[in-house]
Input
Amino acid sequence: EVQILESGGGLVQPGGSLRLSCVASGFTFSRYVMGWVRQAPGKGLEWLSSIGGGAGTTYYADSVKGRFTNSRDNSKNTIYLQMHSLRVEDAAVYYCAKARHGGSYRDPDNWGQGTLVTVSS
Amino acid sequence: FMLTQPHSVSESPGKTVTISCTRSSGTIASNYVQWYQQRPGSAPTTVIYEDDQRPSGVPDRFSGSIDFSSNSASLTISGLRTEDEADYYCQSYDSTIWVFGGGTKLTVL
Output
């Protein structure tokens, strides 16, 4: 059974930094693209970043490019989202998701339960 | 490209409802479309993938299709139940980017 668990959310001041973690199990982690998606309160889903399974090639939405860094440690079945220069509009539930097919960036199938990031002074 | 969904739909228990997802540019058939259900306070779960495929465990009351003439995908839920009340998101991809529709709130009155 695939399990995905995010952690690291919390309250941070505008301009601050936070690192989210996502640990996964139940599949061959290193073979799969993993992604981050967020959902602001009362809003829809917004893709932020994806990272390839092997070499870990990363892609970012324009809204976070240059501020967020997606990385992975396949030995720990974990991906990370390092967030800098946080803004009030970054406040959201952050989800980690596994791509449906190994090696493909096409679409997510399994999602974690999310971790809440609050940006406020 | 963008995916546009109606903001909300409502229907009675036992009836059938269809939620549309219109692609703004490019052909709807160019890339598979997925549908996710999100109940309040929960993470999204897949109800349809690759246009019309149902994951195991999803009842056959849920079906997906694409329409070339309107350049859109549709999620149809038949025999509506109160537990189907949720937000539904369509999703496709542009190379390595996951593109989501704005979501449709389904109310089962």
About this structure: Chain A touches chain B at residues 35, 37, 44-47, 50, 59, 61, 95, 100, 105-109, 111-114 (CB under 8 Å). The mean pLDDT of chain A is 96.
